[in-house]
Amino acid sequence: MNGTIDPSTLRITDMRFADIDGAPKRCTLIKLYTNQGLVGYGEVRDASSRTYAAMLKSRILGENPCNVEKIFRRIKQFGGDSRQAGGVCGIEVALWDLAGKAWGVPVWQLLGGKFRDRIRIYCDTDSEGGGRDMGKALKERMAQGYTFLKMDLGIELLTDVPGALSAPLGFLEKMREYKKTVFSTPHGSIDPRAMRGEAYDLFNTAHPFTGIHITEKGLDYLEQYMADCRAVTGYEIPIAIDHLGHIPLEDCIKLAKRLEKFNLAWMEDPVPWQMTNQYVRLANATTVPVGTGEDMYLKESFRPLLESGALAVIHPDVLSAGGILETKKIGDMAEECGVQMSIHMAESPIACMAAVHVAAATRNFMALEVHSVDVPWWADLVVPRLEIRDGYIAVPDKPGLGIDGLNEELIAEKLHGDFPVAWESTEQWDKEWANDRQWS
Ligand SMILES: [Mg+2]
Fold this sequence. Notes:
By secondary structure, this protein is α/β, with parallel strands linked by helices. It has 2 domains: about 5-105 and about 405-430, Enolase-like, N-terminal domain (Enolase-like, domain 1, 2-Layer Sandwich); about 120-160 and about 215-400, Alpha-Beta Barrel (TIM Barrel). It contains 16 helices and 16 strands. It has helices at about 50-55, 55-60, 70-75, 85-105, 105-110, 130-145, 170-180, 195-205, 215-235, 250-260, 275-285, 300-310, 320, 325-335, 350-360, 410-415; strands at about 10-20, 25-35, 40-45, 120-125, 150, 165, 215, 240, 265-270, 290, 315, 340-345, 365-370, 380-385, 390-395, 405. The strands form 4 sheets. Strands 4-5-8-9-10-11-12-13 form an 8-stranded parallel β-barrel, surrounded by 4 helices. Helix 6 (about 130-145) runs parallel beside helix 9 (about 215-235) and helix 10 (about 250-260) packs parallel to helix 11. The relative contact order is 0.16.
């Protein structure tokens, strides 16, 4: 126990935010303040909104942050799928940080102890050009020490290949037009304009409803791309693939069959996670391991898919799944179903450390994503700097998340234009109220 802190009388007194940009996404950092000077760090999911957390402030003020489960069960009704869960999860992370600091133990210890001392990292890798270029980019990651790889492989690569895709005439032209305007900005799919009007409708058409199909020529192209890539990397290192594009299940099956020989770690989010039956059909049709999870909130969402037997791997994001403890529970449920857990992470080092504690304390964990290895200042957002050594992050022994402090100067430098002041008053949320009871 931290000598100057009395955990039993600890109370939450305030919650404030700093929104940074370019990490590479927008990250909303959270500070939870207490009556004893202790501050807990949390974070809303990448490219989300601080409002999801701010609206919960009045509901947690005056509570003892060490009662993590009690507070989580009160606020969990305000979480939704994907980014909409960001507020609930971000607060939950900050509660664990406070509880660990108050009692003087690392979060992994509060979760039941650890299975490992260092956490295997993988980084999603982008590349221009063909399969050999992607192979070279991945090979560079291997030279940096990474022991697990992920890349994109999907219809993005085919948009300029004549005869590779078919779709209701005009659909692909529209997509190309928005690619050149909205999606060519540094923010790409998280440019606010992508969430409005026709661009939203177009890019949020779910896989079964786009009418896009990959032709045999397109399949040949993607197969060759993967072959060229493997020719450079070799076959010993696992490679997962992501962003197939919004293609129907039947095309996922065709593509998966072409890719079986390349020894993939998993195929990620081939269709929306809500479509359990389609996952079952896919898994029954191919030997490529199938995974999903980064947009799923709570173990209730994971249960049907895990029990269906369709998944080989889940990849929850701690900031969407329900926070630290819920992600551990999801991992444990996956273990019972014979499914491996990786963790998705595209946020700041705060979220990364939250994931490190879950990864340490969950037996069937495989690899943790870090989306920011090409952002030179990302690791300096926290003190001490977050070190990735030879593709691993060491599990810290310090209390809470293991973060001594935030690099306030750097945060001030990287603030999002819409939120030019860090940690300003959130008093306007103190009185937010509704009758939250979910039954009568
Ligand atoms: Mg993904």
